[in-house]
Specification:
The chain is an alpha/beta fold. The chain is built from 13 helices and 11 strands. A 7-stranded mixed beta sheet has the order 1-2-9-6-5-3-4, sandwiched between helices.
Length: about 350
């Protein structure tokens, strides 16, 4: 078992990584007040809800089971959480628990940020993507038909429990989606970690427990440090969006839920590498290396068939990272060295989109 800390002063919180974490001894100390609302979805509930309910049985507990999938990550579904809390007369001393993947974590976190102007919440991520990325850092929110995660708030959890036993139930496609975020950490700031991922990609896809635990630990260590330095994405935290500008465009174009988030990020990272090549920062072998690793992880390396450069430009124009009408991209000076660029040459961007969309 590993315990990391997100250092945010009096709002610091632990990330606990390891097996068999769903016990009262571990969870109960992080619950404040007597009321607990467990938010999960229809896929996760049959697998793990009873275990969590047993761990919090000493409290007054209510449960809301959401429909599963990115297609349901919107304000109408969010209202189910508020309604459950209100019907049970939950006070501002209540604690919400997010039991699920990134969608559940984002929605339960946003509900916690909003309910009576803010209540505490715990993250119990059940997917690899959520364990290595979305459960840490306090980004919460929902999608709008015009853009992904455009409605939300920063609201840090009081603890994150990444129970590696839960990964055993992941379908291969969900595992691959999580590996996209692991690869992202290697590309954006740690070439040595990138090399480790390349050497362990088969073990990771085979759900080797030791390899997965190390991938989670390394990814969370990097994210915790970035969040400590830049909690609200005023600077270095933007690097965590490597591949996401293009990925979010793919999700918005297809309609949320067709591709998994990590699949869109996988193709998006290859596209970011191609833009980096077009402006002279990377060479063709670097782009091929990114594509090869994503392919080995079981991820798409090209946009969906039929998606055009014009489609990308339309969707990227409403990306939340944009500043004063300028598109902001996370690009690569080298593999393992990312930076923010809000002045990409239009011809280079056009050439990259044309290359990727052919």
């Amino acid at each position: 078992m590993h315990t990391l800390t997100v250092e945010l002063g009096d709002r610091a919180y632990p990330i606990v990584i390891g097996p068999e974490l769903m016990t009262a001894e571990r969870i109960a100390p992080h619950i404040h007040g007597r009321q607990v609302l467990v938010v999960t979805n229809e896929t996760v509930a049959p697998l793990y809800l009873s275990r969590v309910l047993k761990a919090v049985s000493a409290f007054e507990v209510a449960t809301v089971v959401l429909p599963d999938g990115e297609a349901h990550k919107h304000l109408e579904t969010l209202d189910l959480i508020f309604s459950e809390a209100l019907e049970n007369r939950f006070s501002r001393n209540a604690t919400f628990i997010a039991l699920g993947g990134g969608v559940v974590g984002d929605m339960a976190g946003f509900a916690a940020a909003s309910y009576q102007r803010g209540v505490r919440f715990l993250q119990i991520p059940t997917t690899l993507l959520a364990q290595v990325d979305s459960s840490v850092g306090g980004k919460t929110g929902v999608n709008h038909r015009l853009g992904k995660n455009m409605i939300g708030a920063f609201h840090q959890p009081t603890a994150v429990f990444a129970d590696t036993d839960m990964l055993k139930s992941l379908p291969p496609r969900e595992l691959s989606a999580g590996l996209a975020e692991v690869i992202k950490y290697g590309l954006l700031g740690d070439h040595q970690f990138l090399q480790w991922i390349e050497s362990k990609i088969e073990a990771l896809r085979a759900q080797d427990s030791e390899a997965l635990t190390e991938a989670i630990r390394q990814s969370c260590t990097m994210k915790a440090e970035i969040v400590r330095r830049d909690e609200r994405e005023g600077g270095v935290r933007a690097l965590l969006n490597l591949g996401h500008t293009f990925g979010h465009a793919i999700e918005a174009h297809l309609g949320y839920g067709d591709w998994l988030h990590g699949e869109a990020v996988g193709a998006g990272m290859v596209m970011a590498a191609e833009v980096s090549r077009q402006i002279g920062a990377l060479d063709a072998s670097d782009v091929a290396r990114v594509a090869s690793l994503c392919e080995s992880a079981g991820l798409p390396t090209k946009p969906p068939a039929g998606m055009t450069p014009s489609d990308f430009m339309t969707h990227m124009a409403v990306d939340k990272k944009n500043v004063d009408g300028r598109m902001r991209f996370i690009l690569l000076r080298a593999l393992g060295d990312a930076y923010v660029d809000d002045a990409v040459d239009p011809q280079s961007l056009s050439a990259a989109l044309t290359t990727c969309c052919h």
